[in-house]
Amino acid sequence: MANVAEIAEMDRKTVLHPFTYLKDYASGGIHPTIVETGKGVRIQDASGREYIDGFAGLYCVNIGYGRTEVAEAIARQAYKLAYYHSYAAHTTEALARLSDRLVRMAPGKMSKVFYGLSGSDANETQAKIVWYYNNLRGKPQKKKIIARERGYHGCSVVSGSMTGLGFYHDHMDLPVSGILRTGVPHFYRGAHPGETEEDFSARRADELEALILAEGPDTVGAFIAEPVLGTGGITPPPSGYWPKIQAVLRKYDVLLIADEVICGFGRTGAMFGSDLYGIEPDLVTIAKGLTSGYAPLSASIVSQKVFEVMEEATPRVGAFSHGYTYSGHPISAAAANAVLDIVEREDLAGQSARKGDYLLARLKAEFAQNPIVGEVRGIGMLAALEFVADRGTKASFDPGLKVGARISQAARDRGLIARAMPHGDILGFAPPLVMTEAEIDEMVGIAKAAVDSVLVDMDQQGAVAG
Ligand code: PLP
To answer: Would strands 298-303 and 110-116 be described as parallel, antiparallel, or unpaired?
Structure first.
C-alpha cells in the first residue's frame, strides 16, 4: 500500500496542476485526491473511498474503467513496437486500420486523418489547415475563424482563443487576432419573450450572416462549433439551429469545423453529434471517446473537398509541413482500435440514446419542480441542471455564493462526481455510456440529496426567491 501522506506531499511540492488554485494547494488548503483504481463507472482513491464517476473523467471514459481487453491491446502493441513516427509516409498496421475505420465512420465526406494527442492540438491543426487551404487556393485574406460565445475548443494558443469563455483568456494574452465571436444557441438564456426555438435559431443564423458581411466574406475562413455545446454549459441546440447555420456558411464559402471532441463516439446517442443534427462538416475534430482516455489520442479529420486542394498543391508547395513526434502513436492507435471494437460491439451509441432518455426523465422527475432549478436539459448521456435564484425571472445567484461548486462538493461528499461547470451555476453529468439504469438511479439520488442539502443552507441565508 502506497504511503498516502508521502505521495500527497511529493505532489504538492512538484506538480503544477491544471485548473487548481495554486496557493491553496501549495499551502495545504486543498487536498489531492490520489486516484488509484477504476472499475465500470466507479473510481477509488488511495484511502479506499469510492466515487461514482458521473463525468467519465473529463467526458472521456465512455467504455467505463478497467476494460482489460484495451489494456491487453496496448500491451500487445507495446511488446511488438512501442513507437515509430508517421513522418515521410511511415506507418503501422494499427494506424492504417484505425484511419480506414475513422474515414468510414466519420460524418460528411471525409478523406484523411491527421493525428495529435489532445483536443486542443487537434483544433490548433484545424486552424492551420483552414489557413493552408485558403492560401493554396489563392484566397490569402480568407483566414478569420468564427467561434461561439461559451464554446470550448481547448486551451492552447489558437484553440484557447477559439474558446469563448473569458476566464480561459484572462492574464494569458488571449485571444489572438483573427478569431471572431458569435452568439451561443442557448434558448433558455438567450430567447426573447415569445420567441420560438425556430425563431431564436433564425436570429442566431442572421447574426452569423451579419457578422460575415460586416467582416467581409472574403476574410472569413471557417466557423467552429461543438454539435452540443459542452464545457460552456452542456446545452443542446434549439430546433432548426444547425440547418440554418449551415445555410449561411455555404452561402459565403465558410468551412465548418465540427468539434466532436465530446460528442463523438456515442455520447449524444448517435455515433457523432453531426449525425444527430444533420451536420455536414468540412473538418472534424475528435479526441476523448476515441480512446475512452485509455491512451492520449486526437485527430483532425479532413474532407475530400479540403484534401483535394492540399493534394493538388504538392508540386508547388512541397510536403505538408506539420506534424508531431507522436502523431499516430502506435500504442494510442492500438488503444483506439480496441475501444472502437467495444463501442461497435456493445452499440454504445444506441445504449447512450436509451439510457440518456432514462437519465433525462429521472432528472426531470426529481428536479423540474425544484425551487432553485431553472432548467433540466440533456441529450444522450450528457445532462445538466442550471440553478437560479428565481425561477420566474431566471435571475442567477450571486456568483460569490458559489452555488454550483457547493452542490458539486456536496455530491462528492456523498460519493458522486458531478461537475460544477466553469460558467454559471450548472451541474453537469456525462457518465460512462455503460452506466446501468440502477447506477443512474443511484447517481440521481445522490445528486438530489446534494441539491437538497445546499437548498437548506441557501434558504437559511435567504438566497432563494420565495
Ligand atoms: N474541444 C472540446 C469540445 C472539448 O470539450 C475539449 C476538452 O474538454 C477540447 C476540445 C480540448 O481537448 P483537450 O483537453 O484534450 O485538449
So the answer is: antiparallel
Would you state the pLDDT for residue 191? 97
Q: Over the stretch 324-379, which tens digit does the pLDDT of each residue have?
A: 999 999 999 999 999 999 999 999 999 999 999 999 999 999 999 999 999 999 99
Residue nearest atom 7 of ligand 1, based on CA coordinates: 154
What is the sign of the dihedral through the CA atoms of 337, 338, 340 and 344?
positive
Q: Cα(64)–Cα(334) distance, rounded to whole angstroms?
A: 17
Domain edge (last residue) among 294, 321, 345: 345
Which atom of ligand 1 is nearest the CA belonging to 231? 5
- 73/47 same-domain check: no
Distance, in Å, from the CA atom of 9 to the CA atom of 111, rounded to the nearest integer, reads 49
Measured CA angle at 462 (ends 460, 466), to 5 deg: 110
User: What residue owns the CA closest to ligand 1's atom 12?
Assistant: 119
Same domain, 401 and 332: no
CA of 153 to the centre of ligand 1 (A): 5
Give a yes or no: residue 7 inside a domain: no
How distant, in Å, are the alpha carbons of 14, 24, 458 from that of 28?
Answer: 13, 6, 28
* Count of domains forming the chain: 2
Query: Residue 435 sits in a domain of what CATH number?
Result: 3.90.1150.10
* Biggest distance spanned by C-alpha atoms of the chain: 73
Range of the domain at 250: 69-345
Angstrom distance (rounded) from CA 350 to CA 181: 34
Q: How far is the CA of 430 from the centre of ligand 1 (A)?
A: 14
Closest residue CA from atom 13 of ligand 1: 119
- 148 and 268 assigned to the same domain: yes
- The pTM of the full predicted model, rounded to 2 decimals, is 0.98
Distance 168 CA to ligand 1 centre (A): 13
Q: Measuring from each residue's beta carbon to the nearest atom of ligand 1, which residues come in under 6 Å?
A: 58, 118-120, 123, 152-154, 226, 230-231, 259, 261-262, 287
What digits encode the pLDDT tens for the residues 135-156?
999 999 999 999 999 999 999 9
CA of 40 to the centre of ligand 1 (A): 23
Instruction: Tell me how far the alpha carbon of residue 163 lies from the centroid of ligand 1, in angstroms.
Output: 10
Q: Tell me the chain's radius of gyration from C-alpha atoms.
A: 22
Whether residues 283 and 401 share a domain: the answer is no
Distance, CA of 263 to CA of 381 (rounded, Å): 10
Per-residue b or e along 452-466, where b marks 16 or more CB atoms closer than 10 Å to that residue's CB: ebbbeebeeeeebee
Last residue of a domain, one of 283, 315, 345: 345
Kindly write down the DSSP assignment for every residue of 168-230, as one continuous string.
Answer: GTTTTT-SPTTEEEE----HHHHPPTT--HHHHHHHHHHHHHHHHHHH-GGGEEEEEE-SSB-
- Amino acid at the residue 384: A
